[in-house]
Task: inverse folding
C-alpha cells in the first residue's frame, strides 16, 4: 500500500509541512516531530469513508455497534437513510447509542438487538430472530471485537478473541447468507486489522491449549482468520451478487 501525504491532509516538502484540517483551516510551519505524530495517528486510524450514496430502503446490520468504529459506522449509515440494526451484547448501552444516533441523524429507523458473539447459542438465536422478523439484509458489518484480553474461555470452550472476532462472525454470516443472497446485490464487511499481517494460525491449537497464551498472538491470529474468511467467502460467492470486503 502506498501512503501519500495528500491522503492524510498533508502538503508541503522539506522540513516544513502544511496540515489541511477537515474544517478547512491550515497549520503551517509544523516541524517533523509534530507532523510525524499526526501522520502516525492518521495512518493508524486509516482512511475516512467519504461515500454519500443514499441507502434508503436498505437494511444494514452492524455488530459491536454501541461504541467505537461500530457506532460511528451506524451513524454514517443511518445518516444516509438506511434501516440500521445495532447488534450488541449490552442492550442498555446499545439503546443509549441508538437514541444518540436517531437524534443526530434524524433517522428513527435505528433499532437494537441482543447479540453475544462469544456464545454459539446467542448467535444462533439472534440469526433465527433476525430471519423471522426482518425482510432483507443488504449490508452486514462484522465489526465487534475484543482486543488483547487475558486467556478467557467462552461457554463453548473457545478462547475468547478467536471466538468473538472470528468464530461468532463466521457463524453469524453463514446463518444470514440466505437473506444476504435474496437481498442481492448485498455486501459483507469484515473488520480486520493491520495486526493480521503478523498473524499465524495454528490449526492444531486454535485456542492456545498446548502453547503459552499470548494476547497479541491470539489477536493477530483472529484478525488473520477474518481476512482468510473474507477471501474464501468471496471466492465461494463470486458467481452471486453478495460481495465481501475486508477493512
Ligand atoms: N481501534 C483501532 O485502532 C482498531 C484498529 C484496527 C482494527 N480494529 C478493529 O475494529 C473493530 C472495532 O474496534 P473498536 O476500536 O471500535 O473497538 P471498541 O470500541 O472496543 O468496540 C468493540 C465493540 O465490540 C463489542 N463486543 C465485544 N465483545 C462482544 C461480544 N462478545 N458480543 C458482541 N459484541 C461484542 C463491544 O461491546 P461492549 O461495549 O459491550 O464491550 C463494542 O461494542 C474490532 O474488530 C477491532 O479489531 C480496531
Result:
Amino acid at each position: 500500500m502506498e501512503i501519500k501525504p495528500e491522503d492524510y491532509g498533508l502538503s508541503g516538502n522539506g522540513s516544513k509541512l502544511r496540515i489541511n484540517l477537515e474544517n478547512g483551516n491550515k497549520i503551517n510551519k509544523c516541524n517533523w516531530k509534530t507532523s510525524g505524530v499526526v501522520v502516525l495517528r492518521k495512518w493508524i486510524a486509516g482512511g475516512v469513508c467519504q461515500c454519500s450514496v443514499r441507502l434508503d430502503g436498505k437494511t444494514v446490520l452492524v455488530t459491536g455497534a454501541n461504541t467505537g468504529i461500530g457506532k460511528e459506522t451506524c451513524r454514517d449509515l443511518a445518516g444516509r437513510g438506511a434501516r440500521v440494526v445495532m447488534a450488541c451484547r449490552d442492550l442498555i448501552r446499545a439503546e443509549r447509542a441508538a437514541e444518540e444516533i436517531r437524534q443526530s441523524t434524524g433517522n428513527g429507523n435505528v433499532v437494537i438487538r441482543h447479540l453475544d458473539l462469544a456464545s454459539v447459542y446467542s448467535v444462533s438465536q439472534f440469526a433465527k430472530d433476525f430471519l423471522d422478523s426482518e425482510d432483507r439484509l443488504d449490508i452486514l458489518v462484522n465489526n465487534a471485537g475484543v482486543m488483547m484480553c487475558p486467556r478467557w474461555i467462552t461457554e463453548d470452550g473457545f478462547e475468547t478473541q478467536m471466538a468473538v472476532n472470528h468464530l461468532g462472525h463466521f457463524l453469524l454470516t453463514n446463518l444470514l447468507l440466505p437473506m444476504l443472497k435474496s437481498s442481492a446485490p448485498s455486501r459483507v464487511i469484515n473488520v480486520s486489522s493491520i495486526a493480521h499481517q503478523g498473524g499465524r494460525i495454528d490449526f492444531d491449537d486454535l485456542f492456545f491449549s498446548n502453547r503459552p497464551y499470548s494476547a497479541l498472538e491470539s489477536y493477530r491470529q483472529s484478525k488473520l482468520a477474518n481476512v482468510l474468511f473474507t477471501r474464501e467467502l468471496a471466492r465461494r460467492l463470486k458467481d452471486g451478487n453478495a460481495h465481501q470486503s475486508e477493512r
In short: Residues 1-5, 13-17, 21-25 have pLDDT under 50 and may be disordered. Helices lie at 32-45, 68-79, 91-105, 120-133, 160-182, 215-236.
